[in-house]
From TrEMBL:
Belongs to the SecD/SecF family. SecD subfamily. Belongs to the SecD/SecF family. SecF subfamily. GO terms for molecular function: protein-transporting ATPase activity. Forms a complex with SecF. Part of the essential Sec protein translocation apparatus which comprises SecA, SecYEG and auxiliary proteins SecDF. Other proteins may also be involved. This is Multifunctional fusion protein. The chain crosses the membrane at residues 505-523, 530-548, 554-577, 598-625, 631-655, 689-710, 827-845, 852-875, 887-907, 937-955, 961-985. GO terms for cellular component: plasma membrane. It comes from Tenacibaculum pelagium. Residues 192-249 form the Protein translocase subunit SecDF P1 domain. InterPro entries: SecD, SecD/SecF_arch_bac, SecD/SecF_bac, SecD/SecF_CS, SecD_1st, SecD_SecF_C, SecD_SecF_C_bact, SecDF_P1_head. GO terms for biological process: intracellular protein transmembrane transport; protein targeting; protein transport by the Sec complex. The gene is secDF.
Length: 994
């Protein structure tokens, strides 16, 4: 081998750099472990929020202290945490979300809230069409507008986009197409602004290595915050538009007569609905009737629902009871209350002075006294015909987190000159009254005005605002206002406890897989196997060194990708060693055999072809995948590159050294020396039987698919999926029945891992939009599970923060709205089709015969159909998830790559044997298959050992993924021998006849 010195130098330097980079992770982990110990010492009740606070406190205290001294350089904790291994969501916990910037709201804003009927109807039709379409929103709106307008009204009309604010870009002479082009530019600018605003907020959030990126031109922005524990805080930060307004407020005395009239009207509207109990705020001792001066039994049965069934009014019976708070409701009832208060018949009861009132909720809910949920306060805002606030947030010159005279956290704001004058006027007109500070249609504070405020200073000071909330509010105000609301259309949350469990399980499975492979290689190849094991260890070091050096994200599927490349790394050595053994059996010397084994005509041709086909499937996965799937694809491609280098060059260095020293290298042991020798199986004679067997399994699978169907995951069909852990073993069917009342229909409930852990999937309210909907569904889940979780509070039940080992809590959840679910499904379909086309073309290019491509692609279709059939037949009986989602598509494409890997090695040997023959005979093909059988079984066995280790000892979330790979490897090994090659042979015969 030439350039040995250069290869040694590169290997040593790369190895040292990898160790150097990985050392930062080691030292960062030591500091973080100390922080966890410190938090546990100071928190005795295992409260997750308090544990996180003390952990943060410790890390902040050592942030700028020296924790690593290398002599030539010194590093603080802040320095090394930026260089540590970047763990993904499933290993570290946190949140991964895709936000959709509302193009509809951008258009409405550009039109200055146009009331044009054609414009409004076109928007409505675009909303409806978007549910089942992959087109962008502007195209849908434009097509509907053109159809509805029938050339009678143009987009450039002054009542639509021919406004003063757009007069420099749009005039009445512009055609619809020209206006559309201008709108697209404005939309792109707004989305860019939204991206920058969100990035500014995230940079100040405080998590290590956050990730934010735009997804094409769709208006979607992906945000990943590994390590984030306060999930509610993150969601508010991401979805807040930062639209700050100052309003005058109606008191409870002003609106109580209307509320009583509305209560009677709602009762009339709901006259067919009955209830068995008057709903009231659990924190109050008095019932509604008590407030009205009627003495009643608190258990009195009501025969009719009304507004006060869902809302508790604050009645002012004296001057001291006058308040800006007009009512209170449970969080899950807010949607009903909103629908009642916006009902036309109810609003018709409003007196003239309340004509434009709008009802807004408090920004923060409070736990009920019995811990069964949360209550939230309601305000009545003095709006107007144009719904224009007296003072907007654009007058704020600065905002910062501060403390008031009672040492409570507040947000201090300074106004510019215009704002100072408006604020002085507003406060002078409302002395003795209340004004509300409203952010994104949520009331943060509504203080009483005691005197005129002329200095342009004011505060946001919610009653129990935390320091973090005050910091976040000042952050969003300084970062700027989003040009349009950003809705979370997809979210995945993993609690830190589940993340740590995934790390532990991954390390166990990873270590066991490595040991099994190392033991097998030494057992089978002896000293040569030991050299391959050293190369394998170097390969693992290179992979992790590369990941940490380039800030790549390591995910659970990524670890699976690394372990899969271990099998492929072994495969390269197996192919080389088998060729060397053949040469030795042919009478060549050890040196000649080694040179032949490592030559392009020997093993390298098959190795390169096999790895390129797998690499191509990795590229397809990386292009079309998202989140963890990208992580899997990245580590797969990286592993292929490093395994090729280590298997070909590092192993060669050790073998050449042994050859030069005269060391005996038989490439086997006393146990394995007679394995797979002198094999001569007539494979092609059995092809008709193989066709029948394969046809039977494919037919059975297709029948099952068309009758039983496939279990689609949330990411393909939309919905919400919760992993809930209990302090006792649970029965899935009983829980499903209990939740039927909470969700309207029984959700899908299945044991997930241990018997005290369930996966609950529901489509409840998935079509509804709004920041509060997620909370309403989560509250409904909590109330539906109340009989099983006892005294666990709603705060402890919510995801995020550390959880006790046997706590009653949500460990993780996923939400996917139907619109993006369709997009994910379509991307997955393109990924599979794209990989098949790319592989077909590559094999055609390398083998120059259509029959080879036909055989390879037929085998791939065979493998995919069999795996799909297995998942359809067994998904109801297996004790783990067998969902068809993004992870399953990743598994299918990996199976495609593996199957092709095996097939290409066999085809390469057939091509070699056929080089000196005019025709492809059955005997020649059988000889090629027999000669590669040792390699085929050896590689499949080592790969299966690795996958079985992950399957049995890895995390629950990856079992379905690994099961698909295990089935795929078994079926792929079979198909390369009994499907791909026979079909290639039959197609070749037909090709020769033509």
């Amino acid at each position: 081998m030439q350039n040995k010195g250069l290869i040694k130098l590169f290997a040593v330097l790369f190895g040292l750099v990898s160790l150097y980079q990985l050392s930062f992770t080691f030292f960062a982990n030591k500091v973080e472990d100390s922080a966890k110990e410190y938090s546990k010492e100071n928190v005795k009740d295992n409260n997750g929020r308090e544990l996180a606070r003390y952990e943060r406190k410790y890390l902040d205290s050592v942030a700028n202290k020296e924790v690593l001294n290398l002599g030539v350089a010194k590093y603080t904790y802040d320095d090394i945490r930026e260089k540590e291994m970047n763990l993904g969501l499933d290993l570290k916990g946190g949140i991964n979300a895709i936000l959709q910037v509302s193009v509809k709201d951008i258009l409405i804003g550009l039109s200055n809230n146009s009331k044009n009927t054609v414009f409004i109807e076109a928007l409505a039709k675009a909303d409806e069409a978007q549910k089942d379409s992959q087109e962008n929103y502007l195209d849908l709106f434009y097509n509907n507008f053109v159809e509805l307008s029938a050339n009678n009204v143009k987009l450039s009309d002054p009542s639509i986009f021919g406004t003063k604010s757009l007069r420099d870009k749009i005039d009445f002479n512009k055609t619809n197409e020209q206006v559309k082009s201008t709108l697209q530019e404005e939309i792109n600018t707004s989305i860019n602004t939204a991206f920058e605003v969100l990035r500014s907020r995230i940079d100040k959030f405080g998590v290590v290595q956050p990730n934010i990126q735009r997804i094409g031109t769709s208006g979607r922005i992906q945000v990943e915050l590994p390590g984030a524990k306060d999930i509610d805080r993150v969601k508010k930060l991401l979805q807040s538009t930062a639209e700050l307004q100052f309003w005058e407020v109606f008191t409870n005395a002003d609106v109580q007569n209307f509320l009583f009239a509305a209560n009677a009207k709602v009762a009339e509207l709901l006259k067919d609905d009955s209830t068995t109990e008057v709903a009231k705020d659990s924190t109050k001792a008095d019932s509604i009737d008590d407030l009205l001066g009627e003495s009643t039994d608190s258990t009195k049965v009501a025969t009719q629902k009304n507004l006060f069934t869902y809302m508790y009014p604050f009645v002012a019976q004296s001057q001291q009871q006058i308040s800006p708070l007009i009512a209170q409701a449970r969080v899950q009832d807010t949607a009903k209350v909103n629908s009642f208060l916006t009902n036309k018949e109810v609003r018709a009861l409003l007196p003239a002075n309340l004509k434009y009132v709008k009802f807004l909720w408090d920004y923060k809910a409070q736990p009920t006294a019995d811990g069964t949920g949360e209550n939230i306060n309601l305000y009545a805002i003095k709006s107007n015909r144009k719904d224009k606030a007296p003072i907007d947030g654009d007058v704020i010159a600065d905002a910062k987190q501060d403390y008031n005279e009672l040492s409570k956290p507040v947000v201090s704001m300074a106004m510019n000159g215009v704002g100072t004058k408006k604020w002085a006027k507003m406060t002078s007109e409302n002395v003795g009254k209340f004004v509300a500070v409203v952010l994104d249609d949520y009331v943060y504070t509504a203080p009483s005005v005691n005197q005129v405020i002329s200095g342009g200073q004011t505060q946001i000071s919610g009653g129990n605002m935390t320091v973090e909330e005050a910091q976040d509010i000042s952050t969003v105000l300084k970062a700027g206002k989003l040009p349009a609301p950003a809705r979370m259309i997809q979210a995945q949350v993993v609690g830190p406890s589940l993340g740590q469990e995934s790390i532990n399980a991954s390390m166990w499975s990873f270590g066991l897989a490595i040991l099994l492979v190392l033991a097998w290689m030494f057992l089978y190849y002896g000293k040569a196997g030991l050299y391959a094991n050293i190369a394998l260890a170097v390969n693992i070091l290179f992979i992790f060194g590369w990941l940490v050096s380039f800030n790549a994200v390591l995910t659970l599927p990524g670890i699976a990708g690394i372990i899969l490349t271990i099998g492929m790394s072994v495969d390269a050595n197996v192919i080389i060693f088998e060729r060397i053994k053949e040469a030795l059996r042919g009478g060549k010397s050890l040196g000649e055999a080694v040179n032949e084994g490592f030559s392009f005509k020997g093993a390298l041709s098959a190795i390169i072809d096999a790895n390129i086909t797998t690499f191509l499937t990795g590229v397809i996965l990386f292009v079309f995948g998202t989140g963890p799937i990208k992580g899997f694809a990245y580590t797969l491609m990286l592993g292929i590159a490093t395994s090729l280098f280590t298997a070909i060059f590092i192993t060669r260095l050790f073998i050449d050294r042994a050859v030069n020293r005269g060391t005996k290298l038989p490439f086997n042991t006393n146990i394995s020396k007679n394995w797979f020798n002198n094999i001569n199986i007539e494979f092609l004679k059995k092809r008709k039987l193989a066709y029948i067997i394969s046809g039977f399994f494919i037919l059975a699978g297709l029948i099952s698919i068309f009758t039983l169907g496939l279990k689609q995951g949330v990411d393909f069909k939309g919905g919400r999926s919760y992993i809930v852990r209990f302090d006792q073993p649970m029965k899935a069917n009983e829980v499903a029945s209990s939740l039927k009342g909470a969700f309207g229909t029984a959700p899908e409930v299945k044991t997930y891992g241990p018997s005290n852990q369930l996966k609950i999937t529901t489509a409840f309210k998935i079509e509804e939009e709004g920041r509060e909907v997620d909370d309403q569904v989560q509250t409904a889940l909590y109330n539906g599970l109340k009989s099983y979780i006892g005294t666990t509070s709603y705060e402890d039940f919510k995801p995020g923060f550390e959880k006790a080992e046997n706590s009653n809590a949500i460990m993780s959840y996923m939400k996917v709205e139907p619109t993006i679910a369709d997009d994910i499904k379509q991307a997955a379909l393109w990924a599979v089709l794209g990989s098949l086309i790319v592989v077909f073309l590559y094999i055609l290019l390398r083998f120059r015969k259509m029959s080879y491509s036909i055989g390879a692609v037929a085998a791939v279709f065979h493998d995919v159909l069999v795996v799909l059939g297995v998942f359809s037949i067994f998904y109801k009986v297996m004790p783990f998830d067998m969902e068809i989602g993004q992870s399953f598509i990743a598994a299918i494409l990996t199976v495609v790559g593996y199957s092709l890997n095996d097939t290409v090695v066999i085809f390469d040997r057939i091509r070699e044997y056929a080089a000196n023959s005019n025709t492809l005979t059955a005997g020649l093909v059988d000889k090629a298959l027999s000669s590669t059988l040792g390699r085929t079984i050896n590689t499949s066995l080592t790969t299966l050992l690795v996958m079985l280790a992950i399957f049995f000892f890895g995390g629950d979330s990856i079992k379905g993924f690994m099961f698909a790979l295990i089935v795929g490897v078994v079926v792929g090994t079979y198909s390369s021998l009994f499907v791909a090659t026979p079909i290639m042979f039959d197609a070749s015969k037909k090709e020769d006849k033509k």
